[in-house]
Amino acid sequence: MRMEPLVLALALSASLPCAALEVIRDAGGKPIDPYLARLAPQASHGDRSRPAPAAQSDRAYRLTQHLPIRSPSLSSGAVEARHHPTRLLQPVFLVGADPRSLAWLEANRERLKHLRAIGMLVQAETQTELKQAIEAAQGLALIPASGEAFATALGIRHYPVLITREGFAP
After folding, report:
1. Which residues make beta-bridge pairs with 92?
2. CATH for 75-169, among 3.90.226.10, 2.60.40.1930, 3.30.43.10, 3.40.30.10?
């Protein structure tokens, strides 16, 4: 079975040991600036709560490089709640850029934020669709990637769906 690297990392994260932590600031330890520079090189030393405009446009450009995003085994449709234990450490949701997914994101946004769920955009053909999905997510983590590994491993046929340790929820 072939799994996408991101999905493989999510699926295996529960069984892999954690790497040793590195202290980056401890009253005299290493300064945090070099680490922040790697994350957002154009960000000023002032307000770090918002990425610099150049960083935002770079991110949008990088996301468009994933188009088209397709998951041939998945389609937009009704999902039945199902008990199906998984080894996920963090809830994951699969959505497309279709009207059903966008409405689902709007209706479930607060619950997804509360759960700190990671989103996978599994279907988007155009830059416009990509932007619509990102806008509907309003700050939720949304990663463009094929959902084929989830479809195969968990027997999922439709999205939008929330996948937790306990199973699937529409």
Report:
1. 118, 163
2. 3.40.30.10
